[in-house]
C-alpha cells in the first residue's frame, strides 16, 4: 500500500512539475485558456465631436442618455433579501414593451436566451431599442419597479435647435457594429461627410475578471485612452439661421407651397450664414425625412427665371452694350420660326432698355443678347460660374446646364428659361455684383478643431475670378435697386424700412415630366435674388417658393418677400448695419494698443469717438478687439484686455455679437438667452467677478424691438412664355 500510494503521489508530483514547466495540458496551453476565460477587453468609446455655428453655439452634440439592462442570472440575488434579477420574464417583457420600441415576444426571447455553452448570461441588453433612452423614459420604467431592470449611462446625438439647417447638418444615430459594440454613425449631411473627423478613435480597457465580470484581485488594467472627435465650426450664424427658419415656417404654413429654398451669404467672403429648405425634418426624431434627403440648395437644379437677367445685364454693361436710354419695341421678339413674349404678353409699346429691365421685359434681354453676341454671352455666363460646380465644401453638387445649341436656347437663357442652375451658383455669381467684381467661392466649414483645442483645418475665403469690373458691379447694383424704387419696378414689395435693397425677381415656369410647362399662377417657381445695403452689400439672399397656393388677390412675390424682408431687416440690425436714414457717422482706423497703458489708450479712443471697454484690472493691454488697422464706425465698442480681476460692465443695448466678443475675451461664464439686443443681465454692472457662477444675459430680437409695419405695395407678376 505504501509503495502504491507513494508511486501515485510521485507520478502526480511529476505531472504537476510538467504542467508548471510547460503550461500545456492535452496539447492546450493553460495560459491561453485562462486568458480566454478571464481576460476581458472593454471598448472606451470616443466622444463624438460637436457641430457649432461661427460663434460657438451648439448645433449638434452628444448628450447624456441611458441604456436599458436586464440582470437575468439568479446568482445576482444570492446574498440579497430583495430579488436583483428578472424573476418573471413574461411579465417583465409585457411591461417593457409599453416603453421601448420592441415586441413583447422579442423582449421575452432576450430575457430567456442562453449562452452557446448552455449557461445563463449574467445580464442582457436590447440593442438599439434599449439605447438612447431619455431621462423621462428611464423614470417611467423605474416606476414599474421591475426586478433586475437597471440602467447604465450612455450618450445620444442631440440637436438642440430642432429643424435647423437639417438638410445641411444631417443626422447621426447609433448602429450595432460587427464586434457587438454600438457606435454613433453619421447617416446624412455634414454628420455623414465628416463622420471620420467627428467620430474620433475608440480606446480599450483590458483586465481580468471572474465569470460575473468583477475585477479579480491584483489584476492589472491596461488602458489605451480614446481619442475624442474633432469639433466642426460652421460659417452659419445661429441668429440669422433662426430668422430664416422662423420666416420660412410661417410662409410654408400660410401658403402650403410644394417647396421653399433659401440661402443667406456674406458677399465679401463667400461664407454661408444661413441655409434651409421646406419641407424639412427634425434630426432628433427624423420626422419629415420621408419628404426627401437632397440638400436642394446644391443638389437640385432649377430654371432660374428672371433672376438670371442680372447677369445678362452685367454682361451688356461690361462689353459696352448697355444703353439705358435707347428704346426697343416691347411685347414680342421673333427669331427664325420662334416668338417670345413679355410676361404681360402685349408689352408696353416702345420703351427704354432701363424701363425694360425694371419691368423685367423678356424682349429687352433678347435685344441685348443680339448686341452682345451669342458666344460672348455664354462665355460670360461661364465666367460667372454657371454650368460648373462652385466647389462648395459639400458633396453631391449639381452643375446645371447652359443650353446653347440653338439660337432660341441662347435667347431664352438670356431671361432665365431653358438653361438650369443651382441656388448656390446664383449666390456665387451674385458675390461678383456685390463685391466689386470679385467672385467668391461659397463655403460652410469655418474651421475644424481637435479634442486638444488645436485647429487642424481653417478655411480661408477664395476668389473664383473677376468676371466684371468694379465699375460694372456698382452700376448693376444701382440698376437692381431701381427695380424696387421705380414706379414700374417688379420688386417694389421688397423695399425695406431704413435700408437700400437691390435685386431681381424671378417667375420661372415649371417643366412637366412629359414635356411642356405647367400653367396657372399657383404653378410657378417665384424667387428673388437680392443684396443689401446697395452702397456696401453685407448680405446676399436668395429665396425661391415653388407652387405657393395664392389667394385671388395675391401675387407670387408676396410669399417670397415675406421671407426676404424679415430675414434681411432683422439680420442687418443684428449685424449693427446702420439704416440709410440714420445720419452717416464717420469711420476711423483702429490703432495697435497691445503693450500700451490702458488708461492712456482709453483717453485716445474716447477722443476718437469710440467707446473703450476694459476687461481686467488695468495696466498693460495684452489683447484688443477689433484688430489693428480695421476701419470702425465712431461710437463702436472697443475691447481692451488686461490682467487682473474683471469688473462687469453694463451690457444694456449691446448686440449679441458684442456680448459674445466680451465672453470670448474675458472667459467669463456668460449665458445668453434670446437673440438681438441686451435687455437685462443677472449680475449688476460694476460688480467684481470673483466666482464661476453663470452670468445670464437676456436679449430681445430686433423684431420685438423694432415693430413697425411696412407699407403694402403691389408688384407686377411675371409669366414666362412657353417656347
TrEMBL record:
Gene3D superfamilies: 2.20.70.70, 3.30.70.2110, DD-peptidase/beta-lactamase superfamily, Penicillin-binding protein 2a (Domain 2). Residues 584-644 form the PASTA domain. SMART domains: PASTA. The keyword Membrane applies. Its EC number is 3.4.16.4. Pfam families: PASTA, PBP_dimer, Transpeptidase. GO terms for molecular function: penicillin binding; serine-type D-Ala-D-Ala carboxypeptidase activity. GO terms for biological process: cell wall organization; peptidoglycan biosynthetic process. Signal peptide: none annotated. Keywords: Membrane. It comes from Lysinibacillus antri. It comes from the Bacteria. Belongs to the transpeptidase family. This is serine-type D-Ala-D-Ala carboxypeptidase. It catalyses: Preferential cleavage: (Ac)2-L-Lys-D-Ala-|-D-Ala. Also transpeptidation of peptidyl-alanyl moieties that are N-acyl substituents of D-alanine.
Amino acid at each position: 500500500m505504501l509503495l502504491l500510494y507513494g508511486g501515485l503521489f510521485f507520478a502526480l508530483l511529476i505531472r504537476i512539475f510538467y504542467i508548471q514547466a510547460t503550461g500545456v495540458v492535452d496539447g492546450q496551453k493553460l495560459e491561453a485558456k485562462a486568458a480566454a476565460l478571464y481576460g476581458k477587453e472593454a471598448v472606451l468609446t470616443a466622444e463624438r465631436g460637436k457641430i457649432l455655428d461661427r460663434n460657438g453655439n451648439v448645433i449638434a452634440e452628444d448628450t447624456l442618455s441611458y441604456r436599458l439592462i436586464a440582470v437575468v442570472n439568479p446568482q445576482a440575488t444570492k446574498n440579497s433579501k430583495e430579488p436583483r434579477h428578472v424573476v418573471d420574464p413574461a411579465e417583465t417583457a409585457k411591461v417593457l414593451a409599453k416603453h421601448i420600441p420592441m415586441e413583447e415576444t422579442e423582449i421575452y426571447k432576450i430575457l430567456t436566451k442562453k449562452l452557446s455553452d448552455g449557461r445563463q448570461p449574467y445580464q442582457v441588453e436590447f440593442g438599439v431599442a434599449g439605447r438612447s433612452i431619455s431621462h423621462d423614459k428611464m423614470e417611467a420604467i423605474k416606476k414599474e419597479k421591475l426586478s433586475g431592470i437597471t440602467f447604465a449611462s450612455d450618450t445620444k446625438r442631440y440637436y438642440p435647435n430642432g429643424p435647423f439647417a437639417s438638410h445641411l447638418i444631417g443626422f447621426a444615430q447609433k448602429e450595432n457594429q460587427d464586434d457587438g459594440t454600438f457606435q454613433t454613425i453619421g447617416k446624412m449631411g455634414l454628420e455623414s461627410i465628416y463622420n471620420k473627423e467627428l467620430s474620433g478613435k475608440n480606446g480599450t480597457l483590458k483586465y481580468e475578471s471572474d465569470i460575473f465580470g468583477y475585477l479579480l484581485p491584483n489584476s492589472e488594467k491596461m488602458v489605451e485612452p480614446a481619442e475624442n472627435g474633432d469639433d466642426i465650426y460652421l460659417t452659419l450664424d445661429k441668429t440669422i439661421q433662426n430668422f430664416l427658419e422662423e420666416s420660412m415656417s410661417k410662409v410654408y404654413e400660410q401658403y402650403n407651397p410644394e417647396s421653399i429654398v433659401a440661402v443667406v451669404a456674406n458677399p465679401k467672403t463667400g461664407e454661408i450664414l444661413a441655409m434651409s429648405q421646406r419641407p424639412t425634418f427634425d434630426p432628433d426624431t427624423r420626422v419629415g425625412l420621408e419628404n426627401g434627403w437632397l440638400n436642394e440648395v446644391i443638389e437640385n437644379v432649377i430654371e432660374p427665371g428672371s433672376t438670371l437677367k442680372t447677369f445678362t445685364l452685367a454682361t451688356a454693361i461690361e462689353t459696352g452694350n448697355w444703353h439705358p436710354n435707347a428704346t426697343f419695341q416691347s411685347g414680342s421678339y421673333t427669331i427664325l420660326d420662334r416668338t417670345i413674349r413679355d410676361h404681360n404678353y402685349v408689352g408696353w409699346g416702345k420703351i427704354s432698355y432701363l424701363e425694360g429691365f425694371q419691368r423685367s421685359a423678356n424682349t429687352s434681354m433678347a435685344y441685348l443678347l443680339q448686341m452682345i453676341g451669342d458666344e460672348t454671352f455664354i462665355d460670360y455666363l461661364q465666367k460667372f460660374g454657371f454650368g460648373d460646380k462652385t466647389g462648395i465644401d459639400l458633396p453631391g453638387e449639381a452643375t446645371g446646364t447652359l443650353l446653347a445649341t440653338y439660337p432660341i436656347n441662347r435667347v431664352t437663357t438670356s431671361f432665365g428659361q431653358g438653361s438650369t442652375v443651382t441656388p448656390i451658383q446664383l449666390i456665387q455669381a451674385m458675390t461678383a455684383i456685390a463685391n466689386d467684381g470679385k467672385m467668391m467661392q461659397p463655403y460652410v466649414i469655418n474651421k475644424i478643431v481637435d479634442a486638444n483645442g488645436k485647429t487642424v483645418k481653417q478655411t480661408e475665403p477664395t476668389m473664383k475670378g473677376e468676371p466684371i469690373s468694379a465699375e460694372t458691379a456698382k452700376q448693376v447694383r444701382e440698376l437692381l435697386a431701381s427695380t424696387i424704387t421705380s414706379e414700374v419696378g417688379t420688386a417694389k414689395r421688397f423695399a425695406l424700412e431704413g435700408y437700400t435693397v437691390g435685386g431681381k425677381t424671378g417667375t420661372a415656369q415649371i417643366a412637366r415630366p412629359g414635356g411642356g410647362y405647367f400653367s396657372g399662377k399657383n404653378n410657378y417657381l417665384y424667387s428673388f435674388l437680392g443684396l443689401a445695403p446697395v452702397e456696401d452689400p453685407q448680405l446676399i439672399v436668395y429665396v425661391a417658393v415653388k407652387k405657393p397656393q395664392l389667394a385671388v388677390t395675391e401675387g407670387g412675390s408676396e410669399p417670397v418677400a415675406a421671407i426676404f424682408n424679415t430675414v434681411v431687416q432683422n439680420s442687418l440690425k443684428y449685424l449693427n448695419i446702420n439704416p440709410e436714414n440714420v445720419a452717416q457717422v464717420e469711420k476711423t482706423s483702429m490703432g495697435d494698443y497691445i503693450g500700451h497703458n490702458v488708461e492712456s489708450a482709453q483717453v485716445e479712443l474716447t477722443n476718437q469717438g469710440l467707446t473703450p471697454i476694459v476687461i481686467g484690472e488695468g495696466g498693460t493691454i495684452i489683447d484688443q478687439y477689433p484688430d489693428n488697422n480695421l476701419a470702425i464706425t465712431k461710437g463702436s465698442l472697443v475691447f481692451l484686455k488686461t490682467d487682473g480681476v474683471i469688473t462687469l460692465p453694463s451690457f444694456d443695448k449691446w448686440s449679441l455679437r458684442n456680448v459674445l466678443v466680451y465672453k470670448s475675451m474675458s472667459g467669463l461664464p456668460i449665458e445668453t438667452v434670446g437673440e438681438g439686443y441686451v435687455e437685462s443681465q443677472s449680475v449688476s454692472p460694476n460688480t467684481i467677478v470673483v466666482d464661476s457662477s453663470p452670468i445670464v444675459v437676456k436679449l430681445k430680437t430686433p423684431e420685438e424691438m423694432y415693430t413697425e409695419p411696412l407699407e403694402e405695395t403691389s408688384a407686377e407678376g411675371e409669366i414666362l412664355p412657353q417656347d
